[in-house]
Amino acid sequence: MNRLLLRLALLFASLACLALPARAALDPALVAGFAGDFNSRVAAIEALGVEGSAAARALLDAVEAGNVGTAADKVVVIDGDAVKDAASGEALQIAADEVETITVNNRIRRALATAHAALALSAESGADRLAAANTLTENTSESLLPLFERTLAGEKDEAVRGVLSRAVARVNLGSADAAKRLKAAEALGESSDPAVKNMLAALLEKRGEGKDASWAEPDAEVRAAAEASIKAIDRRIATAQAVGTVFSGLSLGSILLLAALGLAITYGVMGIINMAHGELLMVGAYATFLVQGLFRSYLPAYLDWYVVAAIPVAFFAAALVGVAMERLVLRHLYGRPLESLLATWGLSLVLIQAARVVFGPQNLELANPGWMSGGMELAAGVVLPYNRIVIIGFAVFVLVLIWLMMQKTRLGMFVRAVTQNRPMAGCVGVPTARVDTLAFAIGSGVAGLGGLALSQIANVGPAMGQGYIVDAFMVVVLGGVGQLAGAVWAALGLGIVAKFLEGWAGAVIAKILVLVFIIVFIQKRPQGIFALKGRFADS
Amino acid sequence: MRTPFTVRLFQSMPKTGWVALAIFAVVACVGVPVAHLALPEGHALHLSAYTVSLLGKILCYMVVAVAMDLIWGYAGILSLGHGLFFALGGYAFGMYLMRQIGRDGSYQSDLPDFMVFLDWKELPWYWAGSDSFLWALFLAMALPGLVAFVFGYFAFRSRIKGVYFSIITQALTYAAMLLFFRNETGFGGNNGFTDFKRILGYSITSPEMRATLFALSALLLIACLVLGRYLVSSRFGRVLAAIRDAESRVMFIGYNPLHYKLFMWTLSAVLCGLAGALYVPQVGIINPSEMSPANSIEIAVWVAVGGRGTLVGAVLGAGIVNLAKSFFTVTVPEYWPFFLGFLFIAVTLYLPDGVVGLWRKLRARKGPDSAAAAPAVTAAPVGETAPETTVAKGATA
What percentage of chain A carries pLDDT values higher than 70? Predict the structure, then answer.
């Protein structure tokens, strides 16, 4: 009964819209639902959403604000002190306190959300329309069908069209017409939503036993189509999940790379294993936090861009700490890698405790800027978050920068010379001591950039560096000490392998398996993936 | 004709060393129990329960330090995973202690409390036999030994050395820590084992038991020192030092460094396991944080502070650092990491041979005559060259 009323109302509404697009008033039949029970109110709200005119929009807002009610058998809107007829907008001679307003309960609220989404289907921006379409797909009902069909007719955006046509198919799956069901079952094969798969699977259910057996879906052709569609959906979901895993592996790998790049430089040039490297990450992360604080206080309008401003700050803050470490301590320990390892561990203790004293022991949480929050949805449940995409890009950027520096600049040439043969480089006039300091500063600065990236996905706290140092070392050891290319391959490889193992065995077992893998790998290639060749190989 | 074993054992340490050990044994096995049990509270020489437990704990740390010195100082292998072996020994013995609680736990069940809490119905298979004291003791040695043997075999066979080895051992203990933090592992998750009641039927908190455990720790330390001294002064120890200083040359002469390194590495792990087994009843708790990489590095700190390659240095270092730690964490807890950090930087920069090296330098400055006349208790058997430089060479090679 309600449905019928609604259809009629819709028909009237669309006719009215076509005939008098400029008229602000609403069709009284649309509004009448508000005088009934909750079911009819929900139907009225949906119908208003479908109708989509400015007046409907205003009325919905009024419902949300609790300003719509009934008085003297009329649906009215309270507008300030005046009471107006909801349909025509004419002022009525009724006092505001005589109106019995509609209670906004959860059902009404849900209906309002759907109606707003229906309204948003005609939004300007494609992204808004897509979001609206997705919301509508979640709780489709037959009443939305005309809206979908109307929108589909005018919609140009492929993504929105896809979502909407699948929504139509979902509704049509319950249609009485077998041909419609067949089309719907075929169309749903385009989906990658597990919920759609369940809907299709429900069609294939068998009821009863033996001779009395009947299918939930009587038509064999529709069943075959549904089966094919389920297979297609399964394939799509599997692909999406594989892509998602590779992506999170790349993301983990790029973080490992940022953490390990600096280490690869410092160890490669100076033979110093820097156990305080994790704390340089921490310095970068805290620098980012401070920049965020400055933006909050002085440039709140540009808060979204604090991350960009933090890039040089994090780099130089960590580089400064690195230079201080190198000048004060490490300088005296060249050629003694084990001692440098232990002394830098002492440094890391001091830095952690200093951070604890200055910033407090608790973890700080940094806000993701607007352009880094949210994500790209590949399929239901497989989302590629923007902040991780940005970090992968950032890692590539840093890598390219370092590569350019190492290959194209004079300093890079010196660094390579010192890495290959320190005494010989000194003999031909390379200022080895200064190269050491600069290389250490750059390695530390890169660690600071790693900290900046980490601050966007993890908590910032005094102990944050400790969590990454073991992994960073694994990357360096696996890649071959001092080898940039090795570090890249090792980081990405470890990241992806770890993520695939994680999906299969859980995070801790994955970590242990990765460790076992590294030990086995080093059996085969003790110097890492890219071993130094030639006469320095064994030194 | 080789000299008999007993003679070689006796000759491995100068007379003053034996005398010092004998005095230490008497103090630990007679003096401390008497001071704790017989003397009334308030007496000037009375030792409180806290002091005895603290000293007992430090004795266990000293054993670990000696074990670390054997592998680091004499074989040039810096392990950052000794905390794992220590904790494995502790867990092995802790299983026995958990079973000894019997039905006195808060759930009055035969199963340890944490298993009841996790709704486990029976003991996992690896807990089989854990109610036997001898099996627990065996496990406390065998488990770390086995892990060390397997890990060491593969690592040494592929000639993983120096910093690589250190990092891999660190990753090993880190992975083990992650594993033990999980409830499913069956070792009490992050709470570990605690709330022990008795050993062999005797109450674990009684003063007699405390004094006994203390004396046992002291005896273990003495045994470690004697064994260590014998090993490093034997032919085996000399080959090991040669491997440390120039592995390739030793190989060219015809030795297989794998066996030497593997033996010392496994022995070191077994000693750590024993120390862990004695540590747990004295401290009353064992949890996965013992396996944290930081703990293992701290063991290296003790040895470096005392002086590497001198067994007595390891003992001194463990004593100095841990006493300082007890002092700092009680008085100014937030400055302890600063102190430890700066101590370590200072020791590596200014005291490469640790406290023992400083002592030797001071002796030498007094005049060559007096230094030559007094045989140094701590003299390293492997030549008088500073182990510092040789280790560094071995590490870079």
Answer: 85
Least confident of A101-115, B44-58, B196-210: A101-115
Which bin fits A85, alpha (ψ -120 to 50), beta or left (φ > 0)? beta
Measured between beta carbons, which residues in chain A are less than 8 angstroms from residue B293? 466, 470
What is the tally of helices (H) and strands (E) in chain B?
Answer: 18, 4
Instruction: State the Cα–Cα distance between residues B332 and B388, nearest whole angstrom.
Output: 33
pLDDT bracket for residue A140 (50, 70, 90): low
DSSP B199: E
What is the SS3 assignment for A78? Answer: strand
State the smallest CA–CA distance between residue A513 and chain B in angstroms. 9
Q: Average pLDDT in the B23-32 region?
A: 86
CA-nearest residue of chain B to A331? Answer: B349
DSSP state of B287: -
Question: Running DSSP on this structure, what letter comes out for residue B102?
Answer: G
CA nearest neighbour of B312 among B228, B375, B216, B233: B228
pLDDT of residue A11: 59
**Distance between CA atoms of residues B58 and B374, nearest Å:** 30
B189 touches chain A (CB under 8 A): no
> What would the two tokens of residue B47 be?
């030792």
User: Among residues A491, A501, A503, which one has the least CA distance to residue A255?
Assistant: A491
A278 to B239, B283, B349: CA distances (angstroms): 38, 32, 22
Across-strand partners of B170?
Answer: none
Q: Which of B175, B293, B338 sits opposite A515 (nearest CB)?
A: B175
Q: Give Rg (Cα) of chain A.
A: 32
| pLDDT level of residue A139 (50, 70, 90 thresholds) | low
Report the distance separating Cα B83 and Cα B287, nearest Å. Answer: 12
In the structure encoding, which two tokens stand for residue B334, read together?
């937030």
A318-329 residues labelled b (16+ CB within 10 A) or e (exposed)? bbbbbbebbeeb
Out of B158, B171, B391, the one facing A338 most closely (by C-beta) is B391
A403-418: average pLDDT: 87
Instruction: Name the residue among B55, B128, B16 with its Cα closest to residue B278.
Output: B55
Tell me the C-alpha distance between A507 and A514, whole Å: 10
What number of other Cβ atoms are within 10 A of residue B309's Cβ? Answer: 30
CA dist., res. B192 & res. B234, Å (int) = 40
- Nearest one of A58, A15, A16, A56 to A33, comparing CA atoms: A56
Which tokens sit at B261?
A: 């390194």
Q: Is the ipTM of this complex over 0.85?
A: no
| Residues forming beta bridges with residue A85, ordered by sequence position | A76
CA distance A538 to B30: 55
Specify the 3-state DSSP secondary structure of A215: strand
* pLDDT of B274 above 80: yes
Nearest-CA distance from B357 to chain A in Å? 16
Residues of A in contact with B300 (CB under 8 A): 342
Q: Are B149 and B262 in contact (CB under 8 A)?
A: yes
As given in the structure block, the two tokens for residue A387 are 């902040």
Instruction: Enumerate residues 6+ apart whose C-beta is below 8 A from B209.
Output: B199, B202, B203, B281
